[in-house]
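Tutorial, part two.
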Amino acid sequence: MPSQSLTESYDLVKAGDKYITLLGDQVNVGSQAPSFKVVDEMFSPVTLSEFAGKPLLISVVPSLDTGVCSIQTKRFNEEAAKLGDDLTLLTISNDLPYAQKRFCKDENIEQLQVLSDSVWREFGKNYGLLIKDMGLLTRAIFVIDASGKITYKELVANISQHPNYEAALAALQEVSKTSEENKN
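Running the prediction step on this input gives:
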């Protein structure tokens, strides 16, 4: 299999006290969200276009079975329960769908959709989140408005730290409000 040359980013994220190399193209606030194809718990393909027309928050975690990732996913699941149906919250990791399904069942994750980038690694590459030599995604949050534009990005500086939940949720509320105003 020929090796695909990917852009490498350095000095953006640390694991402990060492910088890690991220593979793929970094995305920026204000740009169109790159398309991607991931899988759900049944290995059925899911694409970004399926969420078009609604504000979207994507919570990215290295592995659901670790402390911070678990807390992050549970927190956004709780927040999703408080938000309206006009908003979509996703968690994406490179965990296999079987592990994701078990985690969601054990932790009662029912308000957000958990998806896997383990098959094609398209999401990680298209958003510049794939950790070189680990096969995991780095911790990040994206908010995408109803027109598909990235309005918020947090690349968490150290993969062992929590994201800024309040800032991400405020950004989601802002695009939700803008989306509602545009409908009226």
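The mean pLDDT is 94. In part three we will examine how such features are distributed along the chain.
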